[in-house]
Design goal:
Two copies of one chain form a homodimer. Chain A has about 130 residues and is mostly helical. Chain A contains six helices and three strands; from the N terminus they run H-H-E-H-H-E-E-H-H. In chain A, helix 1 (about 25-30) crosses helix 2 (about 35-45). At the A-B interface, helix 1, helix 2, helix 5 and helix 6 of A face helix 1, helix 2, helix 5 and helix 6 of B. Chain A binds a DNA duplex (20 and 20 nucleotides) through helix 4.
Chain lengths: ~130, ~130
DNA sequence: CAGCATCCAGCTTGATACTG
DNA sequence: CAGTATCAAGCTGGATGCTG
């Protein structure tokens, strides 16, 4: 091959997050963003209503959840099902693609959660040596 | 068990990203943050020097890269190897844990990159229906 | 219940300049 | 090369109040 190996994996893909202008970078940010990842993670269990979701994702504000949900819906990762009842009832659930994304995300989340003691230990060492210098 | 099932998976883990106060949430953010994910992804190929990394991660500023690397080093995901030569040479590489994290991240990145046309299509539909309303 | 509009504090980010 | 320091600006995100 002649290409100067700019990426290790999947060099033939048209989309490349490492490039500034690539739209995939935006989607990756929606997905991995503070509330995006938690929202997708929460919805992995099954569909949830707006306020249920809000309670699951501890600390999210109404505004941020709404905004996050819109971005995810626009990217085709979440499906919004509104019932014109009174009081209104709206359910959110993952699309098949959203489900795949959430799986990867949960893999990552589980790994991080499972290794937090290592992380915490590393932090202590880092802070100790830095503070001593 | 008496706990009212707050998480679907791994209910016995001491760390839970869904909880506001959990330190794992911070680490997850370092890892999934805009520059964190790209930095880990870039380092997955092998160790890189500061400016090499800067060129790989298109669009990152010196300051943000520096800051990102510090956070990842502190969390024990990246190892910094400085040689006291002149001019200075500093290599960054993933730790074993960093490597595991990067693997999950790359799975996610590849999925997103590979499905961007679906995402783009979904966006068009979303924008079209929203604009029409 | 489900959400949008607005206001505003403050954290994040990017330039720029400087150091070892 | 490999960063740190500083400053201005802009985006993020929370609180509040209102609608259907």
């Amino acid at each position: 091959m002649d290409s100067t190996q700019e990426r290790p994996s999947a060099p033939e893909l048209p989309f490349n997050v490492f490039a500034k202008a690539c739209p995939s970078r935006g989607t990756l940010e929606h997905v991995t963003g503070r509330w995006g990842s938690l929202t997708l993670g929460a919805l992995y269990e099954g569909s949830l209503r707006f306020n249920e979701l809000r309670r699951r994702v501890d600390g999210v504000s109404e505004k941020m959840l709404s905004q996050t949900l819109h971005a995810l819906e626009r990217d085709g990762l979440v499906h919004r099902e509104a019932q014109p009842t009174n009081p209104p009832r709206v359910d959110y659930e993952l699309t098949p693609l959203g489900r795949q994304v959430a799986e990867r995300l949960l893999d990552l989340i589980r790994l991080v959660e499972g290794r937090m003691d290592d992380v915490l230990t590393a932090r202590e060492r880092y802070d100790a040596t830095r503070g001593a210098l």
